[in-house]
Specification:
Helix content: 25-40%
CATH superfamily of the largest domain: P-loop containing nucleotide triphosphate hydrolases
CATH topology of the largest domain: Rossmann fold
Number of strands: 14
Strand content: 25-35%
Order of helices and strands: EEEHEEHEHHHEHEHEEHEHEEHEH
Structural class: alpha/beta
CATH class of the largest domain: Alpha Beta
Largest sheet: 6 strands, mixed
CATH architecture of the largest domain: 3-Layer(aba) Sandwich
Length: about 325
């Protein structure tokens, strides 16, 4: 039995002259959460739309649970749930009516729709507001309703396209718990996100997408080793001297040029060991650059993202 739930092979798609997917290859193992990271415009949402049969790839092929998205789109749709960046709910209907409508679209047997709807509403903490119009819901409630409705058909594969964008920290944590539960129950989840802590917390494997291709993939720990053993974070007392600090520390790095955040007055560089901290302080003192803080840290996914794409996650 194939253990790969989602497979993309050389998938290509362009919007006019703009190339969104440029021969992308991807494999997602069944029963796992797979995190897809990348800067805006990298191709993440386009890939989700291809896998959801909303777009036909212009090259290559995509397969979900053994079914080709072009030749067997109905079979794919019956096996997936989709929650996008914006809650796709009808504001004129109640929460209960929204879930029941999606259940019917999933062809849930008529005698099970009511029970399945009640189960979803309770699971997502919406029972008390189930009979209110969705127009009265908060953004977090709408997002939970959207995600819950996508699960009424109990799909074995769930596509989540930046599901927590714009949500408050508490609601994000709630959705993280739900995704964890789904994975433990055997659901395969493809999660695109701009939140690096989200991928670190939820995903068993992560891929970084840039310019329509996978530029790196592995576990969070494996990706962090691509940066270096440790990262030296130096914050200067006067943010206007950040560029001076970066110039002084540039050749201490074991990787690319230092990452500079002028607004925060911070310079981050991958280094070979703890001795770099003392050397950094010595160099900055020689240049008359006052130091507010020096810290030797383990690499984060933010460091990986910057190293691979040259950009910060939005």
């Amino acid at each position: 039995m194939d253990t790969i739930a989602i497979r993309a092979e050389g998938v290509k798609h362009a919007f006019g002259d703009v190339v969104a997917l440029d021969g992308l290859d991807l494999e997602v193992e069944a029963g796992t959460v797979f995190g897809l990271l990348g800067p805006n415009g990298a191709g993440k949402t386009t890939l989700v739309r291809v896998l959801a049969t909303l777009l036909k790839p212009q090259g290559g092929r995509a397969v979900v649970l053994g079914h080709d998205t072009i030749t067997e789109p109905l079979a794919v749709r019956r096996r997936i749930g989709l929650a996008g960046q914006f809650a796709a709910v009808d504001e004129e209907l109640t929460g209960r009516e929204n879930v029941e409508m999606v259940a019917r679209l999933y062809r849930v047997p008529a005698n099970e729709v009511r029970a399945r709807t009640a189960e979803v509403l309770e699971r997502f903490g919406l029972t008390e507001v189930a009979d209110r119009a969705v127009s009265t819901y908060s953004g977090g409630m709408r997002r939970r309703l959207d995600l819950g409705a996508s699960l009424t058909g109990r799909p074995p594969v769930l596509l989540l396209d930046e599901p927590t964008t714009g949500l408050d920290p508490r609601t994000r944590q709630e959705l993280w718990s739900i995704v964890d539960e789904l994975r433990r129950a055997g659901t395969t989840v493809l999660l695109t996100t701009q939140y690096l802590d989200e991928a670190d917390r939820l995903a068993q494997r992560i891929a970084v997408v840039d310019h329509g291709r996978i530029v790196a993939a592995g576990t969070a720990a494996e990706l962090k080793t691509t940066v270096g053993a440790e990262v030296l974070a130096v914050r200067v007392a006067d943010a206007t001297r950040t560029a001076d600090a970066a110039a002084a520390l540039a050749d201490l790095t074991t990787g690319d040029e230092p990452t500079v955040d002028v607004a925060a007055g911070e310079v981050r560089i991958p280094v070979a060991g703890a001795s770099a901290s003392a050397e950094a302080v010595r160099r900055l003192d020689a240049r008359g650059v006052a130091v507010a803080a020096v810290e030797l840290q383990q690499p984060s996914l933010d460091d990986v993202f910057l190293t691979l794409t040259g950009k910060r996650a939005a």
